Amino acid sequence: GARYTTVGGRTVALGPSDTLDNLSIKFGVPPEEILQANKLSNASQIVPGRTLIIPRRTSAVASAQAVIPP
Predict the structure, then answer these.
(1) Which segment of 3-7, 47-51, 57-61 scores lowest on mean pLDDT?
(2) Which of 35, 41, 52, 56 is the most exposed place for a label (fewest CB within 10 A)?
């Protein structure tokens, strides 16, 4: 399954129209992953002016390949 990491993720400053749902759609990251990456408990904490980290998707295959020596 998909895993997400904040390493190599994107930092975004929230604007007045940003919501958890539209950030999820825009970046292709599940809403719960965005909350978890930013240690937030619910979507009401996503407010304009706040800076969030959008986690990056990793895959089990990529992780496995990363540990195999060339």
Answers:
(1) 57-61
(2) 41
Q: Which residue shows structure tokens 């919501």?
A: 19
Letter for the amino acid at 29?
V
Return the half-sphere exposure (C-beta side, CA atoms, 13 A cut-off) of residue 7: 4
**57 exposed, middle or buried (CB, 10 Å; 0-12, 13-18, 19+)?**
middle
Question: What are the percentages of helix, strand and coil residues in the chain, rounded to 5?
Answer: 35, 25, 35
What are the tokens at 32? 């719960």
Joined tokens for residue 17: 């129209």
Q: Is there a contact between 56 and 8 (Cβ–Cβ < 8 Å)? A: yes
